[in-house]
User: What shape does this take?
Amino acid sequence: MLSLTHVTKLYGSVIGVNDVTVDIGEGAYGLLGPNGAGKTTLLGLITGQLRPTMGQVRVFGDRPFANPDVLRRIGFCPAADLTERRVTPREWVRYLVRLSGFSSGDAADLADVALEHVGLADSLDRPLGTLSKGMRQRTKLAGAMAHDPDLLVLDEPFDGLDPVARHDLVGLVRHWSRTPASVQDKPRTLLVASHLLHEVETLQAGLAVILGGRLVASGTATEIRTLVDTIPAEVRVRCDAPRRLAAAVCDSTGTESVRFEGDDVLVLATREPQRLAERISLAAVAERLSIHELSAADRSLEGIFGRLVRLHRGVAS
Amino acid sequence: MTHPERLAPVPAPADSAPVVPEHSRHALAASILAVAEFQLARLRSPLRLLMAGMGVIFPAAVMLAVRWAAAAIGNGSGENLDAGREITAAIGMDRAMAATMLYALIPEAVCMLGLLVTMCPAVADELERGTWIHVAVRPAGRMALLLGTYLAAVLWTSCVAILAAILAVLVSGVPDPLPLIGVLSGLVILSALGRGALFALPAVILPKRALVASVAVALVVEYMAGFIPAVINQATVSLRLRSLLVAWMGWRYKVPADMRMLVDPQPPWLQVTAVLALSAVLLAVATAILEYRQFPPSEEI
Assistant: This one.
């Protein structure tokens, strides 16, 4: 359904996407990466807004750039908020559906169905400027889904939403992606870009992780977590005698590398950060060392991305 | 490590979905109409309506001011008395003088200004509002955006300029005003079609500097090159409009000899065809450029 082969996109000397190769079939997928990682550029390539500098993008077997036959089958919900303040959700979605080539009457029916589907039946004729961010997000989603696309691409669809609105939208998107081919008469693919792992996890989607324009890993959420856990995590200790501490803990199994930063910082790499922390405590007591600071392994998404990149570049084993 | 490869699909449980109607065959026409309607709705904002109102009143106000000034000079005493009487007579009764002033004010000034504010931001407005991406991802979105905006700009500007013509002709006090209104309306429509297409080019080539670029194009192409003798300059809208004014007002043999080189002697149908052909070529080029333009994500909003 969707295939990228050694795709690179350059903006002058700036790399947007770097040598990405991926095949995506029917089902739900998440594109995960921090801000500036190249997600929006990748979505721009997939939705035919951008042309690859190198490599090949194929959607439904065709190049998407300036190709109406492909664009007709794509629904796209961009990350940017709607700034059309005077327009109502009904007018906006009808407009978008008409731009997909539907007659005015058909567009009116489809727009009303889609807006009802996203829970905006009571706010059809309120100007967008008077709606909450969550309602505007729903409007955008209705605009992307109303013409019944085969590929639905959502860029940061849950960004800035409160937990309730987020929960509702996740349910909505999950519902769309799981509507079976037997009902729809055609396979469907959902691609959601996000910088929040848990958002994509809740969709129970396959994951692709992008960083610095490169696709650094892919698989299910469990596979990604397992993969991350295999990468040595760094534990940083600031103490008065780092070399003595290193000598005391290095014999413990799982410590894979040691380095010193200045006179008072010890950085240890391990696959078992919890066990290492316990070992450091015991060594500090035994050796009568003063520990000023102990930073646990970075479990944040940025940390996970950083470790994946190191792994991708062959820095970590 | 799991390297980029084919991802495993998520199984799909049973559920229901809305039924969609058949797709229209006239996708492009429907899209163009949709954009035109949407842009016209945007133009009905209080600020745009105020600007349009000013555009309607401005030529009539100028004509009225000239009449009052001429009357004041004519009713005064002293050395300007004779000149004032002549001007009063000319403004109140002479169709040629009124038509020339109204031509300069309406098909040239009002149309040009109207198109500058409606056609120039065709792409820049979408990029600023964050709506470009919504439109560009639709099958005929880019083409429809340009042609629909053009249609809306032509309709809006023509309506404003024709209303301005009606009001100004009535205020100017020329006898038998209907034919003059007809001539001006025809010139307004052709001016809007031609200049709208001309401004489409800067709108797609330099979206963020479209207004400045369009003013430069208007000055250089329409006003400076437009006054190159007609045997050389065949590709400006201003030449065609001037020639049509001369033809439709029946001035062909009244034009001073030194001005004849600025007028094309070809018949009116050929002038109209030339404006339409020029508009079609300009729009085709602009559409082709927009179809292949790429806007990096950072250029939106």
User: Anything to note?
Assistant: Chain A has a mean pLDDT of 83. Chain A touches chain B through 81 residues (CB under 8 Å).
